[in-house]
Design brief:
elongated, alpha/beta, 366 residues, GMP Synthetase, Chain A, domain 3, Rossmann fold
Length: 366
Amino acid sequence: MTQISEQALQAAVREYRDPYLNKDLYELGAVKSLNADDNGNVTLMVELPYPSKGIAGALKQLVGNALEDVDGVENVDVHVGQKIHSYKVQKDLPSVPGVKNIIAVASGKGGVGKSTTAVNLALALQAEGARVGILDADIYGPSIGMMLGVPEGKRPDTRENKYFVPMDAHGLQANSMAFVVTEKTPMVWRGPMVSGAVMQLLQQTLWNELDYLIVDMPPGTGDIQLTLAQKVPVTGAVIVTTPQDIALLDGKKGIEMFRKVDIPVLGVVENMSVHICSNCGHEEPLFGHGGGERIAEEYDTTLLGQLPLHMTIREQTDGGTPSVIAEPDSEVARRYRDIARRVGAELSTRERNLSGSISSVSVTEH
C-alpha cells in the first residue's frame, strides 16, 4: 500500500480557487479537516463562509477529481457545508435580536426595480442555503407583501401585544407596513414618524435566527433614508440602478449617502440592462449600455450583476411568485443566485462582529 503524501493531498485541494473570492480553500480557512486512512480513503470537510449551495456540487467534483489523481488514493469523500458569521455594522450599533446581518437594498430614485431585486435577492440567498428575512421599509409604497403573494388583509400574529411574528412567504420571514395598515390608506406622515415606524417594525418583529435580513429601503436619499441609515445596524448596502444616465446619477447619490454614514456598499445591481423581446428573443439596450460598470469603477465597488428588462420578471413578481421561485432553472433565477453568492462572499471579507450572539446553522452537501 502506497503511503499517501499529505503534501500532495493539500496541493490537490489548493488547485481549486473560489470563483467569488479568488482564493484557495486553505487561504479562505474553509478546510476543516483532511484525512487519509491506510486503505487509500480520503475524507475532506469544507465549510465556505458564504451561502454557496449552487456551487457546492462543482466544488465537490473538481476537488474530488484532483484528490483522486494523488498517488495511493482509492476513494474520495468530499463534504461541503457553509457557515455564515455576523459582520461589523456602522458605529457599532447594537444588533437586532435574531439577526446576524442586515443588508439594505437601496436606490437613488424610484422605478428602477429595487423591490423586485430585494425580493429576488432574499429568495436567492435562501436558495443558496441561508436563513433569510425581508423587511419592507418602503413606507409610502410597500409592495413586498404583494410580490411575495401574501393575501391582502392578512395580518401578522402578535405576542404579548407588542411583538410581531413575521409572516412566512415562500420560506422567507417577512414583515411590512402593508401588513399593519390597509392598502387603501395612504401614508401621510412626516419624516420622523416614518423612520420611527420602520425602527419599530424592525425591533419589534420576532426574527428567528436569520443569517441575513434584507431591508427594502424607501427610494431616494433624503432625510428618511439618512435617518434609517444612521439608526439601523446595517452590515452592507446594495445599490440598484438602471443604465440610464439620470438613474446612475441618483445611484451615485445613494453610494455617497451610505459612505457618509460608514456603511460599506457591497456593490451595484444594474437592472433593465437589456430588453429581451418576448417574441423573437432579440436583445436591445433600451436604457443605454455599461452604466453599472462605470459607476462601480468610479466608486471602487463591484458590479454584482446585470438583469434584463423582461416581461416575465414583472409578471411573476406581480403575481406573487418572483422569478427565483417561479422558474428556478431560468437564466434570470441563475443571475439572481449569482448576485446572492457575490453579496455573501463580499460580506464574508468584512471584519467580524464578535458581539453577535447567534452561531450559524451549517448546511452540508454530502
